[in-house]
Amino acid sequence: MPDAERTDVIVVGAGLAGLVVTLELLENSSLRILLVDRCAPHEVGGLAREAFGGMFMVDTREQRFSRIRDTVELAEED
Fold first, then answer.
1. In the predicted model, what is the mean pLDDT of residues 5-20?
2. Which residues pair with 33 in a beta bridge?
3. Cα–Cα distance list, 44 to 9, 32, 47, 56, 68 (Å)
4. Is residue 26 over pLDDT 90?
5. Is the distance from CB of 63 to CB of 70 less than 8 angstroms?
6. What is the pLDDT, as a whole number, of residue 54?
7. Which residues, in sequence order, are bridge partners of residue 11?
């Protein structure tokens, strides 16, 4: 295990929140990061792995900002 004393940030958990925080820190800082989780590789992502299969978002503000045309009909076709 890496030396925790030489680590700037310790992220506990490789669920959605832990992964997002870790990626943001990696992309936007030079901090030394230690990501700790006890899950098996196929479990990385936590419960969000199952939840995303049921999410259905249409015509969001982010889509409109990016000029992505989306409607309920298009989403249902997908």
1. 91
2. 9
3. 19, 21, 9, 22, 30
4. yes
5. yes
6. 57
7. 35
Q: Three-state SS string across the chain, please?
A: CCCHHHCCEEEECCEHHHHHHHHHHHHHCCCCEEEECCCCHHHCECCHHHHHHHCCCCCCHHHHHCCCCCCHHHHHHC
Residue type, 20: V
pLDDT per position as a tens digit, 28-68: 999 999 999 998 888 888 877 766 655 667 888 888 888 88
Model pTM score: 0.57
